[in-house]
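=== RUN LOG ===
request id: a7f3
mode: sequence -> structure
chains: 1
length: 92
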Amino acid sequence: MFNFHKPQLNPISSFILYSIGGDAEDLWHVYCKKLSNHSFELTKFEGHYNDISTKDTTFIDQRKVTKLDIDKYSGHIQRTLLRKEINIIETK
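=== RESULT ===
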């Protein structure tokens, strides 16, 4: 949800709405690991829990691991997809 200031329609605030209902909750995470001063590894995943109260099983729809290399002179970012996994089930 985004709020805008009228009449210029400049954005003044934004909110992420979380929906909890039934027996599942959607989730998404981005983890960043620094490899060097100009190199990073990003792990992004999205999925849902089977039961919001116990969170014992996580269904991950997609998980991608990407390496970002930043050129220290130009600032150009090079992305390299290292791994992509789909339909993963993790249990506690």
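=== NOTES ===
The chain has a mean pLDDT of 78.
The chain is about 0% helix and 70% strand.
=== END ===
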